[in-house]
Structures are given as structure tokens and as C-alpha cells.
Amino acid sequence: MSVVGLDFGTQNAVIAVARNKGVDVVTNEVSNRATPSMVSFSPRCRFLGEGAKTQEVSNMKNTVASLTRLAGRSLQDPDVAIEQEYVSAPLVDVNGQVGAEVNYLGKKEKFTAAQLCAMFLTRAKQTATAELRLPVNDMVISVPAWYSDQQRRAILDAAEIAGIKVLRLINETTATALGYGITKLELPGPEEKPRRTMFVDIGHSNYTASICEFRKGELKVVSTAYDRHFGGRNFDKAIMDHFRAEWQEKYKIDIYSNPKARVRAAAAVEKLKKGA
């Protein structure tokens, strides 16, 4: 039986399958290895992943991103106020949980972050099923090392809604360490001094470093440190702030005053950063 793993990130999600003594990353319906972690709604249907990404500018008020940053939180959580800057849909309280208010099928609807995560997980499940040509019901999902019990519970609830049995929630840096150690044949023996290695993960919205020790057949996470509010999007914002100041001086316009212009600029800055 093949085991399916999901790296459920803030910006993108990556699906992989363990098979034939290796790990294969699964491509989505447009042959990309990473799928945007987004959900979008319209008067006629909803869009998940790649489809939602195409709605990011034209239908921004009904498009929700940063799903994993919202899961397991309340509207009063200080971190949610930070996320509203990166989520174009209005965030609201839904029975004590943070959620989003959108126009869907011709009426106003409110969905909790767990429900939005569940919608995206159904797309991940469909992508894995199409690759394996078999029903996928079991999955290992990676989450940030700094996730609280409540946030982990929210991901488990989302998976249950999506019809997925979570075999294990694993910290992202632990998953990276396993991927590194599983192929190493020259690791120290049980009685020898362990090999100590640091893994640094700079994601879209957070930064994590873990110190791990390896022996043959053994992995121990010694310590983990993180910054929940530093990641790739902070580099994007620094570049945007630079262009904002330049355009204000040259053209007397402020792109931050126009939400659509800001989203377009953010998309262009991301392309610039990746192409540099």
C-alpha cells in the first residue's frame, strides 16, 4: 500500500507518495508540484487550489488564503489581525472560531477556518487519488512545529470533514529530518556519538530551526526554535514597500490605497523574487 503525505503550507501544499523504495511528489491537474493553499467562491461554484489562484485578483473578496494560519484560532487572537493583511476576504467570528464571509451561490455564507481547510483537503485527496488510481483515505499531514493542540485539533477536524483518516500529524522540520536520515547509510551505531544536524525551514510565513541527532534507525529532535511571523512574505513586503515609495515619488500614487493594485503588485513581486 502506498502512503500519501501532505505538506500543508501557508502558500502552497505539496503531495507526495511513498512507493518503490522512494518518495514521489505528485503533480496536480496543471502539472505543478505545488498547489496553492487557497479556496475561492463564486455565484455558481467554488474553486480550490489552482482554480482559486486564478480568482485571486478578479474575485479577491471571495478568495481565502493563509488557511493553516487561521485554523484553530478565534477572531480575537492577535495573530488573526496580522493575517487579515494577507487575506482579502473579510474575517469574521463563526461560533467562537475565526472564519471568512463570502458570497457563494448567490448568498452570504460564513465558513470556519476548519471548513475552509477541509474544502482544500478534498482537492488534495482528489489529486492523490488521480495519481494512484486508487481511493485515498489515509494521509500523513505535516504542520508547523509551533502549532498548539487546538490548531492541531482543527486540522484533524478538517481532515475528518474531508473524509481523510490522518495516520499522523508530524512537525514540518521533523519530516525534513526523516527525509534526510532515511537514506543515510553511514550513521553512527547505537553506542556511538550521534550525528547532530540543524534543519532550517524558511517558509512563506514562518521560520523554524530544529537540532536533530541521528543514529542508525533512530532520530531524536533535541530542540526547536521558531519565529511565527517571519518568512518569505516579509521579503515580498520589503520589496513592495520599496516600489511603493518609488511610485509615490515618481507618479504620486499609493498602490496600498487600492486593494486590487496591491494584490497585483504582490504577485509581480513574488515573480521578481523567484526569478532573481
UniProtKB/TrEMBL annotation:
Keywords: ATP-binding, Nucleotide-binding, Stress response
Domain of life: Eukaryota
ATP-binding recorded as keyword: yes
GO molecular-function term, one example from the UniProt record: ATP-dependent protein folding chaperone
One Gene Ontology CC term in the entry: nucleus
Family designation: Belongs to the heat shock protein 70 family.
The protein's name: Heat shock protein hsp88
Organism expressing this protein natively: Hortaea werneckii EXF-2000
Source lineage: Eukaryota, Fungi, Dikarya, Ascomycota, Pezizomycotina
